[in-house]
Amino acid sequence: MRLLGGATASASPVPAIAQQPGRTYRLGFLIPVARYAPALIAFLDELRAHGFVEGQNLEILPGGFEVRNEQIADLVPVLVKAAPDTIISGGDFSTRALQNATKTIPIVVITEDVVGAGFAASLARPGGNITGISLMSTDLDGKRQDVLVEAVPSVRRFAALADSNVATLRHLQRLEEVARMHGKELLIIQTAKAEEVVPAINGASAKGVGALNVLASPMLFLNRHHLAPNFNGHRYQNYPERGAKNYRWMYWGDAFPTLLFLKKKYDPDGFFRFEQDISPYPDGDGITRSAAASRFTDMTISG
After folding, report:
1. Does pTM surpass 0.85?
2. CATH architecture classification, 138-237
3. pLDDT digits 0-9 by tens, 244-266
4. Phi then psi dihedrals of residue 23, to 5 deg
5. Helix (DSSP H) and strand (DSSP E) numbers for the chain
6. What is the b/e burial string over 136-155, where b = at least 16 CB atoms within 10 angstroms of the residue's CB?
């Protein structure tokens, strides 16, 4: 079975906060990631660069990290009662609960579509007490499905793995319509909890599904590592995973030598660079500079 998944992001403007001398700002979280996840560390680094330093004038309220959906109903009243200056929320499920619980505490949300979910009136003028980042990855679910169909044209039956906490009926129906336009059958698999994901995939495989599109969802994204063993290495990953030691094989698999060859042919001086680009440098995945160079010499560049 083949796998495709990914995300992009756009942000609505967040007004700058003028610091008040001598004041300690209290920041609450209701997010599914760990306290010291790379993204959160980067976020706190940015706050520090703007003068908000944990342990000095910034307090991080405990208890809001690695939150599962089933914990949200109990955690929201506690967090709102603590009355932090701002709450950081991850995903529609937690944000909806916070939206119903408070109209006064500012909430910065990371979700699929801030406007579409009804959390903000618009990106330019959010209104209310909620603003933040729209990942907009649901807009790309159909595009990824098209890419998957093109990548494995021999597959007749596809599946879309959806998080029932965030997926809408209209969105899923649209994916089914697009699949039919390609002459393909699309099986919708809905899961609500992390422990349901692998059994759902196994069930799809038993029904003859040859390729799977993992739809946008915080829950599915955080459990992406549990998906890999089910796909025999056939994964098409269209987002970078910062810090991955074997990213070349994770992203491109057996196609990497060919891409490396093309990189030398069309960009021999390395003008186009990225921290996880196609380059003949070691990154802990077994590719050494000399080995990559030998691959270059084994290929004939023409044209």
Report:
1. no
2. 3-Layer(aba) Sandwich (3.40)
3. 667 776 677 777 787 888 888 88
4. -95, 145
5. 10, 11
6. bbbebbbebbbbbbeebeeb
